[in-house]
């Protein structure tokens, strides 16, 4: 069985560690791996470096130049050039555990699933503020709603493309983020089964610039905007007015708890970030544009 792993990259030499972790996978003898790397840089200056890594690590790899700094273009390029309907995604700064692929494939089969998510465990620097460490703001797991996963992320995911009916990532989210949330929610709405494999771990080092309150606030705001857009786009979704009222009540509740826990640094920041998420939902209900990340 052939599987394809898609990686979107943008000026990250750390992709070496990602490719090394793929090369080190312990997989069944009947499984072969092909990698598609979509470079979102305006120039193809990383081609020689990435293709050189593939030769060094004895990996079957296809380099695709997907410029214009729109992450959806890069993600769609990976889908367009995949060599197998069994398609995995991993970020260019993540390192997979050596049984990552085999666990994801096993979960796909045993659960008869269409999408499998694995956890992303953040690796923090020694000087990381304690409120970030204790709240673990940079790790990722899918959210369960009524015992179901309704959407997710592309960093550590397996997708059975035969169940996507040609679905692609929305270009409108390509500079703001949220394209993955939109993609998987559309799969869920079409009847796809989304599951979680907690042991298929990838690790992601957290860079210096993400260890600030400003960066996390901006990210939570953007996530809230994406969630708000899903609610408004959903055929069963909320009206703008109802979305506004619900999100306003939630952000008011969260910010009230911020004040209540003002002297507890961990809880204060937890509720601050939660409230900022709902602020993003609220702003989207008012028609405000997404924050650009890319």
From TrEMBL:
<dbReference type="InterPro" id="IPR001173">
    <property type="entry name" value="Glyco_trans_2-like"/>
</dbReference>
<dbReference type="InterPro" id="IPR029044">
    <property type="entry name" value="Nucleotide-diphossugar_trans"/>
</dbReference>
<keyword id="KW-0808">Transferase</keyword>
<protein>
    <submittedName>
        <fullName>Glycosyltransferase family 2 protein</fullName>
    </submittedName>
</protein>
<dbReference type="Pfam" id="PF00535">
    <property type="entry name" value="Glycos_transf_2"/>
</dbReference>
<feature type="domain" description="Glycosyltransferase 2-like">
    <location>
        <begin position="4"/>
        <end position="160"/>
    </location>
</feature>
<dbReference type="GO" id="GO:0016758">
    <property type="term" value="F:hexosyltransferase activity"/>
</dbReference>
